[in-house]
């Protein structure tokens, strides 16, 4: 698992040493219109959701700290208004790295209670045997919620609400009710098998339960902004759920029968999904290990 640890550290840690290893100079921040007044921004790290209108600029996630000037420049191409709100979908650094700079510029940072709790102290990425230092005080969310919070902004009702023990223990979906758009954070990704952060309270059962909630949001034409990867829709979310549930059920059967991780991996429970989902940074055997470790021995 050592090579995976390096990749995940590069994706998620907030440390300056990792930032120094990445060349953010070559990153371009691109915007894509999702609905009227709603955009998705892509650069390096998690996808950004953006709402612009008469009231204020509202941002969901803010990637890595060195990219903040480029992110703000991309936003300035769409509106002259400053960023007033930033909502984090979870605590990982490729989604919260710009918090400090955004906050210093006047934005209020909002997240689930567990996001602030985890950012406030050193965290261990248990599966990868890596640590992430506590975030600077200025990067911490200044408004937190336990269940849900609604922003009545830019002619829409934008609701952030917690989904428990999915990718982490602090995940939130952000829903534009009128625009029919959902930012799913890393609960739903389109780059391959997802990363389940077991040390941060994530689990395969919670991930599937959260996807069921995601499928209840909006109508059949809803646009889904994934945590990573291209803009998506409900059809893709359903395919993702089928993959998650099939693998979970197969691994659960093996573990419930007393088979070891190695024996379970040997049965290749992901085989039919590898061609589509196995090209991301989480490989098939690594995903099986995450699922196996998150499940009880017997149900």
Please summarize what this structure is.
The protein is α/β, with parallel strands linked by helices and 299 residues long. It contains eleven helices and 15 strands. It has helices spanning 2-12, 16-21, 68-76, 93-96, 99-104, 113-119, 204-214, 234-256, 261-266, 274-277, 284-294, and strands at residues 30-35, 38-42, 48-51, 57-60, 83-87, 108-112, 123-125, 130-132, 143-145, 148-153, 156-162, 172-176, 181-183, 223-225, 232-233.
Can you describe this structure?
The protein has 299 residues and is of the alpha/beta class. The protein has a single domain (2-234), classed as Ribonuclease Z/Hydroxyacylglutathione hydrolase-like (Metallo-beta-lactamase, Chain A, 4-Layer Sandwich), CATH 3.60.15. The protein is built from eleven helices and 15 strands. The strands form three sheets. The protein has a seven-stranded mixed sheet. Strands 10-11-12-13-14-15 form a six-stranded mixed sheet. Helix 7 (204-214) runs antiparallel to helix 8 (234-256). It is globular. The model is unreliable at 1-20 (pLDDT under 50).
